[in-house]
Specification:
The complex is a heterodimer of chains A (304) and B (258). Chain A is an alpha/beta fold. Helix content of chain A is 34%, strand content 19%. In chain A, α8 links the parallel β13 and β14. In chain A, α7 packs parallel to α8. Chain B is an alpha/beta fold. Chain B has two domains: 94 residues, Elongation Factor Tu (Ef-tu), domain 3; 105 residues, Rossmann fold, CATH 3.40.50.80. A seven-stranded mixed sheet of chain B has the order 10-9-8-7-11-12-15, with helices on both faces. A six-stranded antiparallel beta barrel of chain B has the order 1-2-5-4-3-6. Chain B has a two-stranded antiparallel ribbon with strand order 13-14. In chain B, a hairpin with an 8-residue loop joins β13 and β14. Classes of the chains: A alpha/beta (304), B alpha/beta (258). Chains A and B meet through α1, β5, β6 and α9 of A and β13 of B.
């Protein structure tokens, strides 16, 4: 028996550790460093219908125990992802979670319908925290009604389970979580980055060309953990937790708070081997805590 | 091959105002192929500062397994790095990126090497390799002022070297272009690293010459995955964009829109 295995809608994970979308490209760079088949899954970079060149630079800025980014969903577009990136990833024995983004509902639907048919795409991750969408901005991720409708529209066309990635930039994340569950979501991934600004102290100018960026890294872990903890009590669909995870203790905390698996983002930039390292450390940590399997650990904070 | 590992500090010394020369030893030196490549350094094992710092390689010695970097300590990360003493361990990811192609020039020809400020260091290994190959390098090195000039003698040992300072406190006064205007353009290839306005001026000055320019951009991962360091391209290339860390940092002149 594989004590690290986790079964989720569409996903038979050999372990609960996967790189988060946007922090791992389409895997090619990290494949030069280690065998991607070790990973539980891979959340590939957000794919939009059309090619996107992203925002002007500077796109990143370091902050205390974290970083801001405003890449702007740069990606080669659906056709090239389907023709080049996904077939290339087929050489690895690893399920792909395709992050789907767009401006209009129709864009999400078109990308979801097509990309969910790729043989190695086992689930979708609906990116509803895009800042430039219909109905005045980030409403896909911040308005429960819109989030539910979008989830339903994508569910209708997707041939694989749909996970929805929640934004933390909301008044009440539970409302959004319950809405996407009602819309038919098979799971939730959370959290995306927190909006922030860094200023150049000398000039007073924002460091990032886009002015605002998304905060990630260890700094956001307590916020992410709180949201996972709260949402786990509100929904019955599984959660893939993320937000500032860089150590094995962070992994344990997210699982305890109710995540069934976790994703690693910014930590990949600090230590490109962080994912395989955490996978290697996990069995020992389970022993130390007295748990036989990963699944026993999931949600234990709620059973105390 | 990109590796990550601990390397040991052999030597660290200040060579100009806030400019440090740091020599590390370790097996990763064997993978350092081209002049102009860089390493991505973690200056602390704490969560702050979090990200790695990209620093260019200024010289490589495969026999002793040592390499040297020259950097300016002007932020929290590089200041911490400057405090590392011999014997200390430094977490190094690299070598990264594509450096200056020396195969684009032949023995007996002249190469023009133009550096600006903290863009000067990678030209040192480049010049050494060119001299080994029988190429004659001419160096034009620009600095802000006398107190930040470094490696004048080292470059002089390799070839003719012109020093320029913006405030005129040492060498020629003005920008590197002021000196370049007075030189014969009998070189076969130019190589440059420095601020983007300087690279742009060179492209405009020598539109007919083959040139290789090293660019700088804020980086995240350093290996091409995060899309932080992209640059717009010109019509000269089919690519919509290039990444400084993994497609560069050195590009042929005309590729990056400056």
């Amino acid at each position: 028996m594989n004590r690290l295995a986790v079964e989720l809608p569409g996903l038979s994970l050999k372990n609960p550790i996967m790189p988060a979308s946007g922090c791992f490209g389409f895997g090619k760079e990290y494949a030069k460093l280690y065998n991607l088949s070790q990973l539980g899954a891979i959340m590939i970079k957000a794919t939009t219908l059309e090619t996107r060149l992203g925002n002007p630079t500077p796109r990143v800025a370091e902050t205390p125990a974290g970083m801001l980014n405003a890449i702007g969903l740069q990606n080669p577009g659906l056709t090239k992802v389907m023709e080049n990136e996904l077939p290339w990833l087929e050489q690895y024995d690893v399920p792909i979670i395709a992050n789907v983004a767009g401006t209009l509902t129709e864009d999400y639907v078109a990308v979801a319908k097509s990309i969910s048919q790729a043989p190695n795409v086992h689930a979708l991750e609906l990116n509803i925290s895009c800042p430039n969408v219909k109905q005045g901005g980030i409403t896909f991720g911040t308005d429960p009604v819109v989030a539910e409708e979008l989830t339903r529209a994508v569910k209708e066309v997707s041939s694989v389970p749909v996970y929805v990635k929640l934004s933390p930039n909301v008044t009440n994340v539970n409302d959004i979580a319950k809405a996407v569950e009602a819309g038919g979501a098979d799971g939730i991934t959370m959290i995306n980055t927190l909006l922030g600004i860094r200023l150049d102290t000398k000039t007073g100018r924002p460091v990032i060309a886009n002015v605002t960026g998304g905060l990630s890294g260890p700094a956001i872990k307590p916020v992410a953990l709180r949201m996972v903890y709260d949402v786990a009590k509100q929904v019955s669909i599984p959660i893939i937790g993320m937000g500032g995870i860089s150590t094995i203790d962070d992994v344990i905390d997210f699982l305890s708070a109710g995540a069934s698996a976790v994703a690693i983002g910014t930590a990949n930039f600090v230590d490109p081997f962080v994912c395989p390292n955490l996978i290697e450390q996990l069995p020992e940590k389970l022993d130390e805590l007295g748990f036989e399997t990963v699944t026993e650990l999931v949600g234990r904070s709620h059973r105390l | 091959m990109i590796r990550q590992g601990q390397m040991q500090v052999v030597k660290q010394q200040q060579i100009a105002a806030n400019i440090f020369e740091l020599t590390l030893i370790g097996q990763q030196v064997l993978d350092m192929k081209q002049p102009g490549q860089f390493v991505h350094i973690r200056v602390s094992d704490q969560m702050e500062p979090l990200l790695r710092r990209p620093i260019s390689i200024s010289s490589i010695d495969k026999e002793t397994l040592e390499f040297t970097m020259i950097y300016r300590a002007d932020g929290r990360g590089t200041t911490l790095l400057s405090e590392k003493k011999p014997g200390a361990q430094v977490d190094v990811l690299g070598p990264l990126g594509n450096g200056f192609p020396i195969e684009k020039i032949e023995a007996g020809q002249t190469a023009l090497l133009v550096g600006g400020g903290i863009g000067v260091p990678p030209l040192y290994e480049l010049s050494k390799r060119l001299v080994e190959k029988g190429v004659k390098p001419v160096h034009v090195l620009g600095f802000q002022s006398k107190d930040v000039v470094f490696y004048e003698r080292e470059f002089q040992q390799l070839g003719k070297t012109h020093i320029v300072t913006a405030d005129g406190s040492y060498g020629h006064k003005g920008f590197v272009t002021n000196v370049l205007e007075t030189l014969e353009d009998d070189f076969a290839v130019y190589y440059s690293c420095g601020p983007t306005p300087m690279l742009k001026a060179l492209e405009e000055m020598y539109p007919e010459k083959a040139g290789y320019l090293s660019f700088e951009q804020r980086m995240g991962c350093g290996i091409g995955a995060c899309f932080a360091c992209v640059c717009e391209t010109t019509e000269k290339t089919e690519a919509d964009y290039v990444k400084v860390c993994s497609d560069g940092p050195v590009f042929q002149s005309g590729v990056v829109r400056v």
